[in-house]
Write a structure and sequence with these properties.
The structure holds 3 protein chains of 3 kinds.
Chain A lengths: L1 E10 L2 E11 L4 E5 L6 H8 L7 E6 L2 E2 L5 H7 E4 L11 H7 L13 H13 L15 H14 L4 E5 L7 H18 L2 E5 L3 H7 L2 E6 L2 E6 L1 H4 L2 H8 L3 E5 L5 E6 L2
Parallel strand pairs in A: 3-8, 3-9, 6-7, 7-8
Antiparallel strand pairs in A: 1-2, 1-4, 4-5, 9-10, 11-12
Chain B lengths: L2 H24 L7 H12 L9 H37 L11 H15 L5 H26 E2 L2 E2 L1 H27 L2 H8 L9 H19 L1 H7 L3 H6 L4 H23 L5 H13 L3 H25 L8 H19 L6
Antiparallel strand pairs in B: 1-2
Chain C lengths: L2 H20 L16 E4 L5 E4 L6 E3 L2 H9 L6 E4 L13 E2 L9 H6 L4 E5 L4 H9 L4 E4 L5 H15 L2 H23 L6 E5 L9 E3 L4 H8 L3 E2 L8 E3 L2 H7 L3 E4 L8 H5 L8 H4 L3 E3 L3 H4 L5 H12 L6
Parallel strand pairs in C: 3-4, 3-6, 4-5, 6-7, 8-10, 8-12, 12-13
Antiparallel strand pairs in C: 1-2, 9-11
Helix pairs in contact in C: 5-6, 6-12
Classes of the chains: A alpha/beta, B mainly alpha, C alpha/beta.
Chain lengths: ~260, ~350, ~325
């Protein structure tokens, strides 16, 4: 469904991503991991069109993304960014409805269908009861779910999330990822999610992409990629993994 | 904000406009008895009725001075407040005001340039003024935008600094033109504070189409402005062609400002105070904020104008002085209370 | 900032300067034929102004015009005046229509229902246009550069108000006094250099009348040389250095009206080296006699002559 070919990106003449290639199939969740500066956010921003690539191609369902207009691309890809920008003065409902923008006219006129989709999105993210509340008055966890609802409302086959659980405490992290997982599996969406928490990557992702210094260090199922050797090498710190029955990895932790 | 609540604000502000307009027509340096006012207006409504002889001067005062001035002041106030609100959304900065960011001064320069080349004698000459002001405002806003952009953000300090720089330059050039054309510094100061050109129907006729067009255009961009509040990148992710939209909003806001400034001179702080207050009351939804700002701005400037005309009668204070008297303390107040991260 | 903007800015700057320099108000003034009982004159803006009969309800927008009106005996025909009109004393009883530090109040002007408004050079062309738009005739009187110009202004005011005879008498009187001054000055053999101070808020760059002002004409007629003649605009600034180099013989304080005294002048940094200061030739002068280009200009001329050449007047 999504194919990235030989992607190279540089910012201010600094090469960030070097000939990155991978594939993602429909209905799969791909976890993007790697140390800070490895290029996770950059990769997401190139795929969603915010950044220009030096060379390479991003092809989604046979469309070269570079050929699509901003509006068309927005119907394919929704992004949940790392920084939560919630400006003051908007209700949750209004924000979630903004996810429908690619389908609305210039004036932002919403149909009943749009309203229904937005409501569904709020229901799925457990934010429907907050619909009329001013979004900037919500807690961090609630705000993140609102942004997720907006991305759901955008109704795209591909979703990109950039470290969406940062600054949330354990409960809200789990809640968020559970909701995401549920929705994604139901709608058979493809998801790329950049994560810093390796255990979450192990738990929630179908595939994992380990980035190191702009290149793909490893790509495959979690058990294949998340090995002590690979992780210690990339993170430059001894990493241990506890194992359960049948050698399945249980918990990843830094060596004490 | 539920639909019910927002309708209340519209009604309230609309009533305010009507009240302010009525006061503006009734009050002035010359006391006109209320019955004369109503008979003159009724006389206009029922054509062909005879009016008492003494009402001739009153008729002239009401219909040639007060009525056109009231209308102009309402429109100019609406224009300045609406464009102020739009600039604030565009620059994502609560301090963006057409005056502070130099757009009004640029428009003023364009306006004076037109009037210096040829003082408007006929209607066509009058129309040339807002058009010229528009070019001035576009130049000014482009300068400010490019001067104050640091990467993807525009910080308060740099925006105001750039605005001050562009303002000063425009005002200096404007003063130069005014002094050379008429040999009088006072004229320059009075014009720049919003004074000598507010007289009669011609300025009203010349500005109205541009003001209405500008406000209309701005209002149509309200939804896009809403989405832009989430930042350029996020807005683009939601399918908004950010550069095109910004360009359109800048053009519309500058047209509106230019049309307002063309004959009224640079009037400060209307575009700052009114949207700011309304934001507190109705939030950041530009689909509400812009039209309500228009109404609020009309009221604010109309009331300021009434004060300007009556406080020190027979002396007429330029209306820009009154708006500064109210606006400057308010501006300092906002500055103090803006969250630290905005600085 | 990229080159395009710099280029555009420079063009704009140059363009603005060029336009500003070339904008001028015309000062042509002619007297046209007086036909039967209606009056038709061309004013200082080159506009032809026509009245059915002499004006009976006049509003004056400047002190000099007010003085002209009263001088030709038309005081009873004036109904309104600007804030600064205070001479003669009767003028203060008239309705004040503004125009002091702010705008003229057109509502008050309209209320007076004038049949003529007299404007002067301190009024802008747009104000004239606005008043005309309200249906009131306006006659614009330009500042005189010579006494001949003044006589023409007096004559015009006489025609407009139906006091042509009085106007001629006033003109003759002024002419006589002018001749007296001129012949007295002809007896002198010195031409002192005069610095007439209009404003010295910034003592390093005080304001003085330039070569194209009537101040300059009058100073010459009074037997002096105006130091400002070397400058360019009619209301010019001279630098303190230039003043020191020129070292005027006499300093006249036109700003004594605003409290400037010879003592305060000698206290200014760098001023006490001037000969005029050391010899006590820093003299206060009533600027009202010169600032208002009306009938009292002759008083101003006489005062100037007496100050510059006291030896021929006693």
């Amino acid at each position: 469904m999504l194919r990235v070919e030989n992607l190279s990106v540089s910012l201010n003449k600094e090469p960030i991503l070097k000939t990155v290639s991978f594939e993602l199939h429909k209905g799969k969740i791909l976890g993007l991991i790697g140390p800070n500066g490895a290029g996770k956010t950059t990769l997401i921003r190139v795929i969603n069109g915010s950044l220009n690539m030096d060379q390479g191609k991003v092809i989604f369902r046979k469309h070269d993304l570079a050929d699509l207009s901003v509006q068309e691309r927005a119907k394919f890809i929704a992004t949940v960014p790392q920084n939560r920008t919630i400006p003051a003065g908007f209700q949750v409902r209004q924000i979630v409805l903004m996810g429908r923008t690619p389908y609305l006219n210039w004036f932002g006129r919403c149909s009943k269908e749009d309203a229904r989709i937005a409501e569904n999105a709020m229901r799925r993210t457990n934010t429907l009861h907050l619909a009329d509340v001013m979004a900037d008055e919500l807690s961090g966890g609630e705000q993140q779910r609102v942004i997720l609802a907006r991305a759901f409302a955008q109704n795209t086959p591909l979703m990109l999330l950039d470290e969406p659980t940062t600054h949330l405490d354990i409960r809200f992290q789990m809640e968020f990822l559970d909701l995401l997982l549920e929705h994604v599996k139901e709608e058979k969406k493809s998801v790329i999610i950049a994560m810093h928490d390796l255990n979450q990557a192990m738990r929630f992702c179908d595939e994992v992409l380990l980035l190191s210094q702009g290149r793909i260090y490893a790509d495959g199922k979690p058990q294949e990629v998340l090995t002590e050797k690979k992780l210690s090498s990339v993170y430059q710190y001894p990493i241990k993994i506890t194992r359960g029955n049948g050698d399945t990895p249980r918990y990843i932790y830094p060596k004490l | 904000m539920s639909t019910h609540a927002s309708w209340k604000w519209f009604l309230f502000l609309f009533a305010g406009v009507v009240l302010a307009a009525a006061l503006s027509i009734i009050l002035g340096s010359v006391h006109i008895p209320f019955k004369d006012i109503s008979s003159i207006f009724m006389g206009r409504v029922e054509s062909g009725s005879t009016l008492p002889a003494t009402s001739n001067k009153f008729t002239s005062i009401l219909l040639d001075l007060r009525l056109p001035r009231t209308i102009l002041v309402l429109l100019v106030g609406a224009a300045l407040a609406t464009s102020g609100g739009a600039y604030q959304g565009l620059f994502q900065n609560p301090l963006a005001d057409p005056y502070l960011i130099g757009v009004a001064s640029g428009a003023g320069l364009g306006s004076i340039l037109a009037m210096t080349i040829q003082w408007p004698q006929d209607m066509l000459g009058y129309f040339a003024v807002p058009v010229s002001a528009f070019f001035g405002s576009i130049l000014a806003v482009s300068l400010v935008y490019s001067l104050s952009r640091v990467g993807k953000t525009i910080h308060n300090t740099t925006l105001i600094l750039a605005g001050v720089a562009v303002s000063s330059l425009s005002n200096a050039l404007t003063s130069f033109l005014l002094i050379n054309a008429g040999g009088e510094l006072r004229r320059a100061i009075v014009w720049m504070m919003g004074g000598s050109t507010l007289i009669g129907w011609k300025p009203v006729i010349a500005s109205t189409p541009f003001i209405l067009l500008g406000i209309g255009l701005l209002y149509s961009t309200a939804y896009q402005l809403n989405v832009l509040q989430f930042g350029d990148e996020e807005a683009q992710q939601m399918g908004v062609p950010v550069r095109k939209v910004r360009m359109l909003i800048i053009l519309a806001a500058s047209l509106t400002t230019a049309a307002a400034v063309a004959f009224a001179g640079t009037i400060a702080f209307v575009g700052l105070v009114v949207p700011h207050i309304l934001r507190r009351l109705v939030g950041n939804d530009y689909r509400l904020l812009l039209p309500l700002s228009a109404l609020g701005g009309a009221i604010f400037l109309c009331v300021s104008d009434i004060l300007a005309r009556t406080l020190l009668s027979p002396q007429e204070i330029p209306v820009g002085v009154i708006t500064i008297l109210f606006g400057a303390p308010f501006f300092l107040f906002i500055l103090r209370n803006t969250k630290r991260k905005m600085w | 900032m990229n080159k395009k903007i710099v280029f555009f800015l420079s063009t704009l700057l140059i363009g603005t300067v060029l336009i500003g320099c070339s904008a001028q108000t015309s000062t042509a003034e002619m007297v046209a034929e007086v036909a039967s009982s209606s009056i038709s004159l061309v004013d200082g803006l080159g506009r032809e102004v026509t009245l059915e009969s002499p004006a009976a309800n006049i509003v004056s927008l400047s002190p000099s015009n007010t003085e002209l009106l009263f001088a030709v005996g038309a005081g009873d025909q004036v109904v309104g005046r600007d804030t600064f009109s205070d001479y003669p004393a009767e003028a203060t009883n008239l309705t004040d229509v503004g125009g002091g530090y702010a705008e003229y109040n057109l509502e008050l002007v309209l209320e007076l229902e004038p049949d003529l408004v007299l404007a002067a050079e301190i009024n802008t062309a747009e104000l004239v246009q606005s008043i005309e738009d309200l249906g009131i005739p306006v006659f614009y009187i330009s500042n005189p550069l010579t006494f001949e110009d003044l006589y023409r202004n007096i004559e015009n005011v006489g025609i407009l108000t139906g006091h042509t005879d009085t106007a001629q008498i006033v003109i003759a009187e002024i002419q006589e006094r002018v001749d007296a001054v001129v012949s007295a000055i002809a007896e002198t053999d010195t031409t002192p250099l005069v610095f007439y101070e209009l404003d010295a808020t910034d003592p390093t760059k005080p304001y003085t009348p330039g070569p194209s002002s009537y101040y300059s004409t009058l100073i010459s007629m009074a037997g002096g040389k105006n130091i400002g003649d070397a400058l360019t605009s009619s209301w010019a600034q001279i630098s303190l250095e230039e003043l020191v180099i020129q070292d005027p013989d006499i300093i006249l304080l036109g700003d004594s009206l605003w409290g400037v005294t010879p003592e305060s002048v000698s206290e200014r940094e760098g001023w006490n080296g001037l000969s005029a200061v050391q010899e006590g030739m820093v003299l206060p002068f009533d600027d009202n006699l010169l600032a208002r280009p009306g009938p009292r200009l002759i008083d101003g001329l006489e005062a100037l002559a007496q100050t510059i050449h006291p030896e021929v007047f006693d």
